[in-house]
Amino acid sequence: MPHINVLLVVRTVDIDQDGRLSRLITADAQAERFLVGDLTEESVRAVLTACGNDPDNLSTVTPELLRAPLHLAVSSALPAAAW
After folding, report:
1. Residue, of 7 and 66, whose pLDDT is higher
2. CA 18 from centre of chain
3. Which of 28, 33, 42, 72 sits a CA distance of 20 to 30 A from 82?
């Protein structure tokens, strides 16, 4: 199936530690690696608001922690009442 693209999202540590995943990005593999850095504060605030949370009610350190995409994804799965 030559016209199918697959997007695989994994943590860097998983690529580094799992041989099956690391083989996907070797020089002869047909895969590209895109590193995602920290999100902007505006992006975090937008996601929190969309999830029903008021970013202004959070401690000052929480939005900084949520700039990591994995942290924001996990926290977004929580009900707003859990905050």
Report:
1. 66
2. 19
3. 42
